[in-house]
Amino acid sequence: MSVRRSLVIGTVGLAAVLAAQTTALATPSATSAGTQAAAAARPPGVIVEGSLRALGSFTGLRIGTAVNTDLLGADPAYTEIVNREFNTVTPENVMKWEVVEPTRGSYDFSGADELVKSAQQNGQLVRGHTLVWHSQLPSWLASNGGMTTTFTDQQVKDIVKKHIQDEAGRYKGRIWAWDVVNEAFNDDGTPRQSIFYKAWGNSTDYIADAFRWADQADPSAQLFYNDYNIEYTGPKSQAVYDLVKKLKAQGVPIDGVGFQTHLSTQYGFPDLQQTMQRFADLGLNVAETEVDVRTAVKPGATAGTFTSEPLSNLHASTQQAYWDQSLKACLFVQRCVSYTVWGVADSNSWIPGVFPGEGAALLFNDSYQAKREYTVVQQDLALAAGMARHRTGEGSGGR
Length: 399
Ligand code: G3I
Prior knowledge:
alpha/beta, TIM Barrel, 8-stranded parallel β-barrel, binds ligand G3I
């Protein structure tokens, strides 16, 4: 049986799943020696009973993680968790424009190639991230945070088209879903004034063109619009809703909307399920694409440093509740095709670098031990395993 086929297990009874998982649902041992031995004993692509990817497969829900290719292969404990727990992978950085084309016309796809190859070996699908984004653009193309360029409008259009053709074309047939356009709106719902917006005559028409070019380059990939702070009712969510509704009406090849879902316990939990359902009702797939739940953490021994320990038990239990609710929101929306966490261990998360004093945002601690948050996610998936299998998401065929 192939790895892909072994994931298609079909509907099973809840009691049977829970009985089968009784021992496997124990928190996995993640000691470095333990994980190395486990990985060595298990050929790539063999699914571990009770892992998140195995439990998700009972309902057809893909469970993913962002991958740091500096750690993949180099850090055994990290690599073991990526391949044991997840069946989709998203490159955290190596498919971004500044990485793949640091100098105009000179490409570096080494990290992206490595990730795609590893995914194939481990029975994982790839979420390509991301083709058109104002951030992490190469310095030859843009400055001022993606707001300024020295190129003419027509040159920018030609450059964007070529970039999409080159990158999406290189991985044609090997990408499950592309984040074609990322973060095109401000929090107040106005369009971001990026070099793309300006080049298309101060309009969001670049978004339709990007989707058309991505579809031409890789017709089998699902094409997503991806953004943050659209998880709750508000002007930004509404702006994205209006955009994708218009794209659908115009026949633009869009398959889905990614809700990044970077959550913080200092804010109330969003009306995520209702919001995703509203988008799904437009005939789009939805996904949670970058889930993490940050909270205030205890200070470290030296002034200005911080640990990955939540400040109190209340902070920790709120985080656990947010993981539970974010996963359930996806489980209860039939068109929610994947649930992706933005990294493996707290120590590899982007959060402490951007929000000093906050952290503990992921499922594994700094020592790659599964946290209580992991168990919450694992148990939700096990409990959901009795639901009718109803997710598709195997390419753009259902568009
Ligand atoms: O690669 C350089 C390295 O050469 C240099 O020495 C080092 C010095 O700072 O920087 C390295 O680049 C860093 C890069 O990650 C790779 O590690 C950048 O500084 C750093 O800003 C960059 O951060 C990434 C961030 O996107 C950039 O906006 C995070 O890892 C990544 O997790 C984060 O991911 C984004 C999603 O793509 C989109 N949604 C939001 C999410 C969180 O910001």
